[in-house]
Amino acid sequence: MPTPPDNSATSPYGLRRPTMADAREAMHRVHGHTGRSAWARLLQTAGLSGTETSDDDLHRLLTAMTGLDPVSRLCAQALRIRLSSHTHLSAAHTMTRSTA
Question: The whole model's pTM is what?
Answer without folding.
Answer: 0.78
